[in-house]
Amino acid sequence: MLFYKGGLFHNMKRWRLILLLGISVILVLDLLHPGFPFTHDGRDHIVRIANFYESLQQGILIPRWGGNLNWGYGHPVMEFLYPLPSYIASAFHFIGFSLVNSYKLVLALGIIASSFAMYLWLRSFLDPVSSTLGAFLYMFAPYRMVDAYVRGDIGENLAFLFVPLVLWAIRKVVTTEKIRYVLWGGAFWAGVILAHNAIAVMFLPVAILYAVILLACNWKKSLIWHIGGLFALGFGLASFFWIPAVLEGKYTLRNVVTAGLYLSRFVKFQQLVYGPWNYGQTGEFTLQLGIANWIGLVAGMIWGGMKVWNRKIHSEIGWLVVMLILASLASIFLMLPYSAPLWQKVMLLQNFQFPWRFLSIDVFTTATLVAIMLSQIKKYRTALMIGGICLTFLFQWQYFHAQSYISHPDSFFSGIWDGTTDTGESTPIWSIRWMEQYPDAPVDVLDGKAHVVQVSRSFTKHDYIVTATEPTTLMENTLYFPGWHIYVDGKEVPIQYQDRRYVGQMTFTLPQGTHQVEVVFKDTKVRIIGEGISIVSIGILIGMLVFAIRKKIL
């Protein structure tokens, strides 16, 4: 589909396909090792996938509650965690791959597919040789290997796939005015948001500036509506996730946990130039941008400066270079301690937690600058591309393997987990960051006398038969979060969850007698609105597609 005549990559020569595919496969060969790579977050991601998959098995199409997390008390981390990697991993797991291998397949997908996505965008305005080198550097940047083999961040790694695809779609919208590229672009922008929400926030200004450049160079009033529709469609498709994640974050410890964390995470400039490969924590693993990437940035600054000085910045590529340089320098500034006052004033920045996350922007911008600079050289272009690839391999070959591998069966990840899989920022504000103990029973009798029989239990519905010999106060050993309701004999009863003695667990009272008790997690109004917008957006996408096909305007 992608390579047939009319497909996305039909103009890609076979040797370039083989080159990119071969290099990208080399980068992920280490993942064939049995077990899961020992990384900072890898184990937590697999646990999240296990909870996500179990939710899907229970018929929950949009998992928000991790029922096995937090020592069995449950946790709302999945409401705030980018869901696309877990959906993809769940699909792999459904067809027979283990949880560990599903996680590794998502890692491999992000690395391999991102190189082709980058090539697709670069090739839309550059020659094939320059586009190949840019795609290679985008895939091979040291920070990409940190993501895969040190941090184990499948979300950020997957987001790199969609970033260039959004820009490709924007450019196609402007140059062709065809509806299909609005639809592609909306889907790709939703992919960025659902793959990693922080990357989406960082990348949004770059995407908007790129759209402005293209509109300025190819002005048509109607194109504003096309580009606006692209972004609106993307936000709409992803509304089921980002609207609740943004609006219900106030019920969590997010701002408490992340406050001030950035102060100890700034980068020294020399770390961006070079840092030895290390599998340690923040401050220990390398944060270097890469030699070739630095060459591209410096060359771009010289080339762009000369164009500006001579007042020859009139073309799309000229303005793109200026934008890429400004984005690169701004990202570098935000990683350095000189930007601390700005971080202190802007809470949105503090939610990123780690200033070095802005390396994600520089990986993209500098790889693009290298490709553009190579395209300006008329002679020996292919030789320079091959030389750049070989030198990069020579200096960075030791980066694409994990420190070690650990073997665990799926049951290790799919049972009750003694943690929350985050640093506690998703914990409800009326609780504590971690419970650190297992409950003795699903329900405790706090006052009075009662016999409790558990009838059934899923992540979002707990059914009990309770026989109370006198008025009784019970505690459901599940953390309260908006959406939980308790029904006694079919009627909703008040929930108390702010009693400091019970750190966010739900307590309620029963009169004497035998009662049917249901504890149910439902969508809040905010979640319903977000899901409704996504459904409408899907309907619009399908409707536009059908209309375009019937009118033959694709």
- The coarse silhouette is elongated
- State the total count of DSSP E strands: 10
Distance between the termini: 16 Å
- Number of helical runs? 22
Q: What does the main sheet amount to?
A: 5 strands, antiparallel
Mean pLDDT: 92
List the helices and strands and how they pair.
Blueprint lengths: L13 H15 L7 E2 L4 H16 L19 H4 L3 H11 L4 H25 L4 H13 L1 H10 L2 H23 L2 H17 L1 H21 L3 H17 L1 H9 L6 H5 L10 H5 L17 H19 L6 H20 L4 H6 L1 H4 L8 H17 L5 H16 L8 E2 L3 H5 L28 E5 L2 E8 L3 E8 L3 E8 L4 E5 L2 E3 L11 E6 L2 E9 L3 H27 L3
Antiparallel strand pairs: 1-2, 3-6, 4-5, 5-10, 6-9, 7-8, 7-10
Account of the 3D structure:
The protein is an alpha+beta fold and 554 residues long. Helix content is 55%, strand content 10%. The protein has 22 helices and 10 strands. The protein has helices at residues 14-28, 42-57, 77-80, 84-94, 99-123, 128-140, 142-151, 154-176, 179-195, 197-217, 221-237, 239-247, 254-258, 269-273, 291-309, 316-335, 340-345, 347-350, 359-375, 381-396, 410-414, 525-551; strands spanning 36-37, 405-406, 443-447, 450-457, 461-468, 472-479, 484-488, 491-493, 505-510, 513-521. Helix 4 (84-94) packs across helix 5, helix 9 (179-195) packs parallel to helix 11 and helix 16 (316-335) packs antiparallel against helix 19 (359-375). The protein is elongated, with a radius of gyration of 26 Å. The protein starts with 13 loop residues before the first helix and ends with a helix. The model is unreliable at 1-10 (pLDDT under 50).
